[in-house]
Design a protein that fits this description.
The chain is mainly alpha-helical. It contains ten helices and no strands.
Length: about 190
């Protein structure tokens, strides 16, 4: 593992456990076992480090979102697969999920960060646009629909991770169906 990756992994772990503001550069230095100069070689400051980690996680999440999507599938089946992809990405990466949650609710998520990160979601945006154009989805801004899906998945993941709720395959299908029902045209 590279020093840069070691710093990123440690930052994700600390932010997930302690939050953005309680995670200091000194603590990152100590827990990552790298010299302070090494961190500043890769990142200008804490804000740059946090934004970089967030951007890289958004890119990873964007790839997970559209993983294994077969264009021959009907639109609804693709929607269900996308929901599952996001769900399993978060469920299998709880610290990354918590980091994203902390960052997204902080004042650090500024317009320039949103614009830079939007490119990671372009396939998802295109998928939503196509659903609206074809009459599958409600005529809402794509960003609202993506946020509705994200919020729905996040609530389920939070319940599993923090309430230690277990769900069956049948329940998972019903949860996805409820999300579908909230954004589809009736």
């Amino acid at each position: 593992m590279t020093k840069r990756q070691q710093i990123i992994d440690t930052t994700i772990q600390l932010v997930a456990e302690m939050g953005l503001y309680a995670t200091s550069m000194g603590l990152i230095v100590k827990e990552s076992n790298v010299a302070a100069g090494t961190i500043y070689h890769y990142f200008k400051n804490k804000e740059d480090l946090i934004k970089t980690v967030y951007s890289e996680l958004r890119e990873e999440m964007g790839k997970a979102f559209i993983q294994n999507i077969d264009n021959a599938l009907p639109y609804k089946e693709k929607f269900f697969l996308i929901w599952k992809n996001l769900f399993y990405y978060f469920k299998d990466n709880p610290q990354k999920f918590q980091f994203i949650e902390h960052y997204a609710s902080s004042p650090l998520e500024k317009n320039e960060v949103k614009e830079i990160n939007q490119r990671h979601y372009q396939p998802a945006i295109n998928f939503i646009q196509k659903g609206i154009e074809k009459g599958y989805l409600r005529t809402l801004p794509e960003s609202f629909i993506i946020q509705l899906i994200f919020a729905h998945v996040s609530v389920v993941v939070r319940m599993i991770l923090f309430d230690e709720t277990d769900i069956s395959v049948t329940t998972l299908q019903l949860l996805i169906q409820s999300c579908w029902d909230s954004v589809r045209i009736n």
